[in-house]
Amino acid sequence: MVEITETWIDSLAPNSAAIKNGHDLIKKGKFTAFHQSEDELVLFGICAGSGKTPYTPSADFVFPDKPVMRCSCPSRQIPCKHVLGLLYAYSDGKPFSTEVVPDELAAKREKAEKREEKKAKEAAEGTAPKTKKVNKSALKKKIMAQLQGLDVLEKLTFSLIRRGLGTLDAKELKIIQEHVKQMGSFYLNGAQIQLRKLHMILSAGGNPEYTYSFAAEQFAVIHAFIKKGRAHLNAKLEDPELALDHESTIEEWLGHAWQLSELKEARLVSPEAELIQLSFLSYDDASRLEFVDNGYWMQMDSGEIHSTVQYRPYKAAKLMREEDSFFEVARVPALYRYPGDMNRRVRYESFTSRPLEEQDIAQIRQYAAGSYIEAIKKVKNQLKNPLGDPNPVMLLHVDKVVTDEEGRLFIADAGGDTLGLQDVIGDTTVQLVKYLPEDSLKDIAMLVLFDHQPQSGQLRAQPLSIVNKHEIIRLLY
Question: A single GO molecular function, which one (predicted)?
Answer without folding.
Answer: zinc ion binding
